[in-house]
Structure formats: C-alpha cells, structure tokens
Amino acid sequence: MFKRLPGDEARNLVSTTPDTAVVFRPAVVTTPAILTLVILAWGMLAGLVRTIWRHPIAALVPVALGAVCYVYGWPSAACILGVVVLALASWALLDRPSFARLVGFRLLAWWRLVWIYRRHWQPVMVVSGLGRHLRGRDYLPRLGKVTCTSWADLVTVRILKGQAVKDWSDRTDHLAQGFGATSCRVALSHAGRLTLTFPRSDPLASPLSALPIPEVPTVGPVEIGKQEDGRPWRLKVHGTHVLVAGATGAGKGSIIWSVIRSLLPAAGAGLVELWALDPKLMELSYGRDLFGPRYAATPEECAGLLDEAVSVMQKRAARFAGLQRSHTPTVDDPFVLVVVDEVAFLTAYQSDRQLRQRISAALATLTTQGRAVGVGVLAALQDPRKEVMNIRNLFPDKIALRLDESEQVDMVLGDGARDRGALADHISPVPELGAGVGYVRLEASPEPVRVRAAYVSDTDIRAMVTLFTEHQEAA
Ligand SMILES: Nc1ncnc2c1ncn2[C@@H]1O[C@H](COP(=O)(O)OP(=O)(O)OP(=O)(O)O)[C@@H](O)[C@H]1O
C-alpha cells in the first residue's frame, strides 16, 4: 500500500553539472510511513480541535445528533434533525432579517470560508505573489475570520512579516479573480491585519428615485442616497466644501439636486441660502426660482456673485472674531451654500484672464475661510486635472463619480484612493447602472466609500420649485 511515498523518486535522480565529470547523487533519507501517518493524523486532530474551538455551536450539532443516534437509534436522530430544520425554515420565513443576522449569514460565512477561501487560499496566494514558496516550504499569509453581510464577504488576513498594505492593494484584481468576486477592496484593520472586502452582489445596481423632502428643516448632514452597505448616504455640506468630479453623464446633477432637495425646508425657513452659479446654463437654470436673485450664468455675473459671497463671509468673520469659532445657522446668519456647476468653465476655460483670476481668487478665498462662518461651496467639474482645477485640494470632501481614466481617481480622492478600491474608472457608463454611482472620501476617513445618489428628475425639480414658491408666498 505505501510502496511509493513522495520522495521515493528522488532516490533515482542524478544531478550533473555540465562540463564536469563529477556526478552527484543526492542523499535521500526515506521517511518511515508510520511517521508520515502520525503527522497526518496530528494535523487532522489539530484541525478538529481548531474547528470545535472556533465554531462550538456548529460542532455541537453533529455531536448531539451522533449521541442521539447512538443511544436511541437513527429514526430519533432523523426526527430531531427534521424538527430543527423545520423550526429554522419557519423562523427564516417569519422574520428574515433576524434569521439572516443570527443564523443565515453565519452559516454562509462558514460555508464560504471552507468552500471558497480556504480551498483556494494557497494557490491564489502563491500565484498572485502574496505567498512565497521557499526551500520546499510555503510561507502564506494567514486566513482569518470570514464575515458575511447582505452584500459582501469580509475576510480578515494576517499578512506576512515584511509585507506592506500596498503589496495587497496592487493585487486586488488577482484576489477578486482568484476568489470569484467582481472586485476586492483592501483596508488595514490593525497593524499586520487586513480586511478584504469581496462584494457578492451590487446593492447600488438599480437607480434610486428622489428621496422624500425632509419634514424638519436641517442643514445636514443631508441624506442624498445610499451607501454600498445599505445605509443611507448622508453628506455633510455645512462646515465643509464638497467637490464632485465626474465625466459627462456621470450624474453630477443628481448630487447637486439631491443636496438642494434635502436643504429645501431649511431654505424655506430662512436657515439656508442657496446661491447658484450655472455657467453651462443647463443644470441649475431648471430650478432657477429656488435661488431668487442669487443666480448667475454669465462669467461676469458669476464673478459678481462670488465677490458678494466673499463679502458676506468677510463681514461675518469680522463680527464673529473673538466671539464664536463656529457657525450655527440662524435667520440672521443663514448657511450660504454656493453651488457651482462645471466650475472649470469659470476657471480654466474662461478666456478673459482678469475675470478668470478674479473668479479663482474668490473661490480660493471662500474655500479657505468660508466654512467656519457658514459659507460652503459645492462644486462640480468634469476634468479633475490640476491645470483645470488648481484649487481642488482646498475642498475637504470629495466625490468621484465615473471618471474616464484611472489616474484621475487619485487626482480627485487623493493619493492611494484607487489602490484602496475606489474604482471610479470602472463605473458603468450606462445611466441605469452607473449614473450617480461614485466613491466618497471624507476628510475624516481615508477609506473611500461607494455610494449612489438618488435621481432627482425634472418633475421632482418642478415640484420642488412649486413647493418652495408657495411657501415663500405664504410666509
Ligand atoms: N443618480 C442617478 N441615478 C440614475 N440615473 C441617473 C442619475 N443621475 C443621472 N442619471 C441619468 O444620467 C443622465 C445624465 O445625468 P447628468 O446630466 O446629471 O450627468 P452630469 O454628470 O451632470 O453630465 P454633464 O456633465 O454632461 O452635465 C440623466 O439624464 C439621467 O438619465
């Protein structure tokens, strides 16, 4: 039975060095079969103990069934198994969320750990270059826990000593392909430990219709869509500045209009003033009545409106000096949100040099000094290159919608964002699938979050204008 053990062939190998008469015959020490068996049995025992230690409840089930079978016979064990399965199925039917949270996702995680990750771990690590095969031994990163959420598998990994997070983020494609996922994201959880996120489905695949207008006036964070994990996407606009970059048709308008929609009650109550710069004469002109006299389209008008915003900001700063360090919106001092659609029309593509410099200086002043006194800028642009938008770093919060080139992702979201999984250049150009989908990198967190903005249609905008004007007339 054990006539041909691994290593037997090596006995017959002869290695020679060309051009010499010296012939080396490797010394082969035959491992006794019993030793191999003991090592195998030890490995299995250790695996069993590890499984019981990690999954005590799951291990208890076969043990209990085995005991019942032994004492009372197999029909009793089969009956108990049937009752348990029936109870679980009823629970799943009656209260799916609690079943999924307490049982379903745990079972799925265990299954995916065994069937997907552990089974493919060694080959994927070696082929992708994240593991090493040295002198007959495999040095592999340690696979940790697998947790399943409604849309993704979160896999914890203890990386090899000497490896960097970048070694992993450079190989996200290999990892995704290796484990049969569409993409992979890498995040550092503790020193030496990473969390890999493998999406199983895309919760943002279908468009979201416009969210209800809030009942209570609020300046934010305003709810404007959905995050990949299913939670609402709330964007802070008061106390920051937001830059939205995306190719044509990426859905920049849906972010602008979702923000305006959420701020509408606050605007009605006088706590927010919406100022609009619409150099393309397209996006914002549709809801022109929402902005009253604070709407500008020509470059001259835009420059004038920006200067006015700077003047409001400076007057406030002079009043607040020494008295308050942050802004609370009131009717006397409302939050001023300057919305700029296609900011590059006013900066890079503006042929009048003096006007261009005036506009750039005003935007730079607002973005450097405005947030503490309640003046914010929400700007959209198509081309994020520095020549086009040299003040992009003055925006603390950035959103990258679909972009044409991979290099543009880091230009918008900052260095390393694409390596961390912000694949904005992979977002579908088909509006139903990809418009309004993007990645956000907030000032407070380096991890990009995948989101989708709700789509505010022309009908929604018309309804918003009617509601707002009726409210203004009634007031
Ligand atoms: N959030 C969204 N969800 C679903 N579809 C959307 C969304 N946003 C936009 N769309 C669709 O995509 C089309 C283009 O959107 P939009 O005009 O807002 O893009 P844009 O980035 O502003 O483009 P441009 O820079 O050319 O003005 C819209 O007509 C609409 O059909």
From TrEMBL:
MF GO annotations: ATP binding; DNA binding
UniProt cross-references to PROSITE patterns, sorted A to Z: FTSK (PS50901)
Pfam families associated with the record: FtsK_SpoIIIE
SUPFAM superfamilies cross-referenced by the UniProt entry: P-loop containing nucleoside triphosphate hydrolases (SSF52540)
Record domain FtsK: where: 230-410
InterPro entries the UniProt entry points to: FtsK/SpoIIIE/SftA, FtsK_dom, P-loop_NTPase
Keywords, in A-Z order: ATP-binding, Membrane, Nucleotide-binding, Transmembrane, Transmembrane helix
TM ranges: 33-53, 60-93
Binding site for ATP: G246, A247, T248, G249, A250, G251, K252, G253
Protein name from the UniProt record: DNA segregation ATPase FtsK/SpoIIIE, S-DNA-T family
Taxonomic lineage of the native organism: Bacteria, Bacillati, Actinomycetota, Actinomycetes, Streptosporangiales
